[in-house]
Amino acid sequence: MIENDIIFQPLKFRNLVVKNRIFRSNISGRFDNYDGSGTQVRINWEERFARGGVGAILTSFVPVHVRGRILPNYATIDRDERIPFWRQVGDVVHQHDCRLILQLSHSGRQQEIGGIENLNHKALSSTSRSQPSDGFPCEAMTKDQIRETIQQFADGACRAKKAGLDGVELHASNGYLFTQFLSSAVNDRQDQYGGSLENRARFLLETLRAIRKRVGDYFHLQVKISAIDHANAVYFWKKKGNNLEESIQVCKWIEEAGADAVHVSTGISFPHPLNPPGSFPIADSIRASEVMMSDGTRTHWTPMTIRFRWLQPVFRYFWNHSKPGQIEGINIPAAHEIRRHIKIPVICTGGFQTASYIRQVLSDGSCDAVSIARSLIANYDLVKIFEAGIDRPLKPCTYCNKCLSNALENPLGCYEVSRFESDYDRMVKEIMSVFQPPHSSQPGSWEGSGFDRGIIISHSAN
């Protein structure tokens, strides 16, 4: 039955074959050292999903430069000294016949904690206008800074190739630097990198060409894009930003520039009401916002509006008024339309965790693969559950988004205690299991299967 199931049919890209159609989407916690060097915990984190059966892992936000990180404690790819660590990650993932695609990223103005290295530097962006939600100071990049950043992306891709990884993905979605150039709601430049859609896409396309020139034609290269900005999803009086028709054109240019796949998401920021869709956990979000309060000029607004009960309905209205009822497959309509206009494969993200629905969108041509984040945090071996003929996990992800709201100050994991029979200690044990030594048993995993754990390795190990 598995052999005839489209979920488990290999996906063939131009230069890469993935064993099935389930990708672990870009998600990770603050598992690494403050300076951007990697740890054994990160290796444990990636391996648990490879062991769980996904065909490929898309790493989460790997900065190409320290000035472009969203927050500290994420492993970077900004220097050659990082290559051995990423080689180690890739080697462990490859042991499970799983592919590892590294996401090359730059925060631009969308940062959460800049870190001490950036205290005296404004964030780089397409604009000098700070982000409405936090107010971190930023400056419009000069042409020299644009050229330098393009080089940083090309160098990062070359390092990923030298590390033996299976490909790279450019993070051109969800409000980060490329989005800040692409979006008509953000980009206010008057030079060749602003104005028309062709000009706004120039930075991304020049980066794609620079990477392809550096790594050659036989190294996998894909782009994650927000199909629709929904820039007015919270504040309805704001500009809407890019629409689907504009993104289709950008995807055509991406294909022409040498990309091997497009990864479809949505939204002009992260988090965004439509990404990740689901609940907004008030209590956990208060703590997360307080972590950010010292860095931005408007970071006090969110904690103030959600801390006081009488203001919470106001916040909920603005956050929820544009949300559709759909969560699973929220981006499928956009992905389907993009796939109609390009020849390279399309990966779609958005709350997937039901085998029959995934099978449907793959079969009807809406996309070629799905990427999953929260639902795999809830059930690491979701793919094995599907292999066993089970359509949906016994304890599915509730889309509560507590994993996201805890990620700034706590280890990433599932914080919905109801999934642990309301046993808080059991929940904590599961969250902390990523720090355990390798080859220990997986608490609470389906059918008792194990995942490798790990302990932090020293900085000198890189």
In short:
With 462 residues, this protein is an alpha/beta fold.
Report the principal-axis shape: globular
The total count of strands amounts to 13
Which percent bin holds the helix content?
25-40%
Kindly, what is the distance between the CA atoms of the first and last residues, rounded to a whole number of angstroms? Answer: 44 Å
Unreliable sequence segments: 440-462
Helix-strand string? EEEHEEHEEEHEHHHEHEHHHHEHEHHHH
Total of DSSP H or I helical runs spanning 4+ residues: 16
Percentage beta strand: 5-15%
Strand order of the largest sheet: 3-4-6-9-10-11-12-13
Biggest beta sheet summary: 8 strands, parallel, barrel
CA gyration radius, whole angstroms = 21 Å
Mean pLDDT: 88
Query: Structural class, please?
Result: alpha/beta
List the helices and strands and how they pair.
Layout: E1 11-12, E2 17-18, E3 22-24, H1 40-51, E4 56-58, E5 62-63, H2 83-94, E6 99-105, E7 123-125, E8 138-140, H3 143-162, E9 167-172, H4 177-182, H5 197-200, H6 202-215, E10 220-226, H7 244-256, E11 261-265, H8 282-292, H9 301-307, H10 312-320, H11 332-341, E12 346-349, H12 355-363, E13 369-372, H13 374-378, H14 382-387, H15 402-406, H16 424-432
Parallel strand pairs: 3-4, 3-13, 4-6, 5-6, 6-9, 7-8, 9-10, 10-11, 11-12, 12-13
Antiparallel strand pairs: 1-2
